[in-house]
Amino acid sequence: MRSEGPRPHWSLKRRFQSSPEDKLGETIPQRGTTEVAHRRTATGLLLGYGIIWIWLAINPVSRQDWLLENLLAVALVTVLVLTYRRFAFSATSYWLMAVFMVLHAIGAHYTYAEVPFGFWLKDMGGLSRNPFDRLVHFAYGLLLVYPLRELLVRLAGLRGGWSYVMSVSSILAQSAFFEVIEAIVAMIVSPELGSLYLGTQGDEWDAQKDMAAAFGGAMVTMWMTAALCTRHHALEQQAPHRSVPGVVH
Question: How many angstroms from the chain centroid is the CA of residue 174?
């Protein structure tokens, strides 16, 4: 009887390298660069965000509003740092999260209703309100649905169309959840800052519009991701024996 030798050790990384459809979990080390480079990228983004955050923490328009806005932001960064060794996102996901966090830090500094860039957009577009908060809600879906899908694929094992549907649905659900949480926090911590913190600017449908913006952003990113994946699969089928530049699936 032939000896089969030792069985290969199963690992999450090995699992997601085995199939073209499992390449969403590709990180920088799996794309040809070193784990050290990935760690440097993540550390650089953290330090860069930290510097910007500290700078914007100086003399915000409303200190109380700034504290409320940063509760969840600080919690998210803390979780990402503490879980890095157990679950490292791809460099693409870290970049997307960093960009969103900077946008949020800007909104927290000025309060979303008072961001100068938003007033410029308001004047240029002839709008009735400062649209910066709506822009950041759109960015929430646009920038965070990609790392969320990476999480769902690598931990929950979602594949194909369901990975896109559940990612977009999760962004919409999170957006609704945060609207509720923000309202509760505003009422409990500082009722007098409710309107300022929520950034409604007199719009009674503000929460619904914010959720729609996040949903739209998530749809755009998932459509682009699906298109890139389809193109990547087509290239692999045309050149099965030739190395094709990896894309995040």
Answer: 12
SS3 for 205?
Answer: coil
pLDDT in tens, 233-249: 777 777 655 554 444 55
Domain ranges in the chain?
33-229
What CA–CA distance (Å, rounded) separates 66 from 74?
12
pLDDT band at 230 (very low <50, low <70, confident <90, very high): confident
Total-model pTM: 0.77
- Phi-psi label, residue 160: left if phi above 0, alpha if psi -120 to 50, beta otherwise: left
Give the tokens for residue 76: 């998210």
Please name which of 20, 18, 16 lies closest in space to residue 235, comparing C-alpha atoms: 20
d(C-alpha 163, C-alpha 158), whole Å: 5
